[in-house]
Amino acid sequence: MDMYGSYSLSIFLGKFFGVYLLALFLLLIFRKDETNAVIKKITDDSGLLAVTGMINLLIGIAVVVVHTIFVSDWRVLITLLGYFMILRGVMRIAFQKNAKDLLKKMVKGTNGVVTMAIMLIVGLVLVYYGFGL
Question: Residues 36, 58: contact at Cβ < 8 Å?
C-alpha cells in the first residue's frame, strides 16, 4: 500500500463503478420508458426516495472512507463518485423536493443527454483502467 491507498482497491472499485455506470447508461438508452417509470415511482414516493438516499449515503461514505485519493489520474474519479453519492444521499433524505426536481430534470431533454454522456465517459474510463484494457 502506498501513501494513496491500495492500488488493487482502486482496480476493484474502477471495475465495480465502471460496469455499474455503463449498465445504467445502457438501461437509459435501451429501456428508457421503463427506467423513466422507475424514476417517476421514486420521485412520487418520499419513503422510497429516502431509502435510495440512505443507500447512496452508505455507499458514498464507504467509498470515501476507503478511497479518498486525490491524484491527477483516473483514481480521483472514484473518490469524486463517493463524494457525489454522499451529496445525492443527503439531498434525497433531507432535501426531498430539490432532489425530486433534480431527478425529473436529469431525465428530460438536454439535461438527460448530459447526464448520460457523463455516465458513459466516466464508465468507459473506469472500465478501461479497472480492467487494464
Answer: no
Please count the structural domains in the chain.
1
| Cα–Cα distance for residue pair 50/55, rounded to 1 Å | 9
123: containing domain: 7-127
What does the block give as the cell for 4? Answer: 494513496
Burial (Cβ within 10 Å: 0-12, 13-18, ≥19) of residue 78? buried
Tally of CB atoms within 10 A around 82? 23
pTM confidence score:
0.86
Positive or negative torsion for Cα 46, 37, 104, 20: positive
132 domain-assigned = no
Q: How many CB atoms lie within 10 A of CB 56?
A: 20
The model's confidence at residue 60, banded by pLDDT at 50, 70 and 90, is very high
